[in-house]
Amino acid sequence: MAVAKKIPYIIDKPMGFCPGCGHGVVIRLIAESLEELGQDNNIIFGIGVGCSSLLGGGLNADRQHCPHGRAGAVCTGMKRVNPENIIISYQGDGDAYSIGIGESTTAAYRNEHFTTIVINNTNYGMTGGQMSQTTLPGQKTSTTVGGRDCDITGFPMRFPEMIAHSFNPAYVARGSIANIKDIHQAKKFIKKAIEVQISGEGYSFVEILSPCPTNWHMSPIQAMKHIENVIKPYFPIGEFKLPKADT
Fold this sequence. Notes:
Elements: H1 23-36, E1 43-47, E2 62-65, H2 71-81, E3 86-92, H3 93-99, H4 101-109, E4 115-120, H5 150-153, H6 159-166, E5 171-176, H7 180-199, E6 204-209, H8 213-216, H9 220-234, E7 238-241
Parallel strand pairs: 1-2, 1-3, 3-4, 4-6, 5-6
Antiparallel strand pairs: 5-7
């Protein structure tokens, strides 16, 4: 008989994400990784504004809700005054790449010693599904009803590739939760990012491709297939900068 896997200690109550949303899966992966590394009582989350804000209500852990887009700066301060703690910035693509692009790039540029996890669902999920920095070419949103025209708006941002190639962060990866294989791989990326922080090597960053059935106007199953067939070809998953131990 199958035995249900124990819920990590720091997840202490349900969170209010939409049905089929990927945030809950990613949070579970982060919590499991912290527990397996013995850091679940040594964590402080910097939480961005957006759907990510719902993270705080379901955690039995220290956390700081940050001003919009400023999680990178807040986490920099927290890590510098609490170097013994594991600091994780948890943000959406709008918070990290739009209003927070300055803070996000500066943290990577300076190789700050904390970890950032960004949920990329190609839209501003909390505020009604507007176009974000990661909205795909031709994608329809509430502000691109005819599809994103990149001649007018510019092209989607591939942030992991940008910081991996332009700066010198310790570890950069992009994962997906479109299927079981991807989920296991995403956990490996998240766990490695935390290990890099534990070792004191520098800035670690993981982007996760995640479904947004509500604003994509899809069922959860359709949303997962959409990641697999449409989003992953544009945002390839994998590791873009390896820690020194792996090189």
